Amino acid sequence: MVKEIIFVGLGSCAGGIGRYLLTLLMKGASAHFPWGTMIVNILGCLLIGMLMALCDKMPNGHLHLMLTVGFCGGFTTFSTFSKECLNLLQIGNYTAFALYALGSLVIGIAAVALGFAIVK
């Protein structure tokens, strides 16, 4: 268990640094649109999709854990959210998909607004 936590931590650290550097690179692209965050989310989704496809081919479970939970999770949690949405669609659980996707988006935005209002 400790070994797995270390792998996740290393991946998460690298993912967080990658996200920060990419958003810094995109800062000048537009002051009116969060391009850096959008690109990070899309790249994270692309990467976690590729890793899902490679999952069976990876002999080392620790490497897969470090790259998916660690790196992708540190890079963007949106990739994990998107993977979970795809999993629900793949098993045909459309109701759970709709509730999860729409609920996460709508309630998530409402929670941000509420948190902001509480502190303000």
Instruction: Give the uncertain stretches in residue-range form.
Output: none
Main sheet summary: none
Structural class: mainly alpha
Radius of gyration: 16 Å
How much beta, percentage-wise?
under 5%
| Mean pLDDT figure | 89
How many distinct beta strands? 0
Q: In which range does the helix fraction lie?
A: over 70%
- In whole angstroms, the N-to-C terminal distance is 41 Å
SSE arrangement, N to C: HHHHH
Specify the overall morphology: globular
Number of helices: 5
Write the layout of secondary structure elements.
Blueprint: H1 2-26, H2 35-54, H3 61-75, H4 77-90, H5 94-119
Helix pairs in contact: 1-2, 1-3, 2-3, 2-4, 3-4, 4-5
What does this structure look like?
The chain has 120 residues and is mainly α. The radius of gyration is 16 Å and the shape is globular.
Task: Give a brief outline of the structure.
The chain is an all-alpha fold and 120 residues long. It has helices at residues 2-26, 35-54, 61-75, 77-90, 94-119.
Keywords:
single chain, mainly alpha, 5 helices, 0% strand, 120 residues
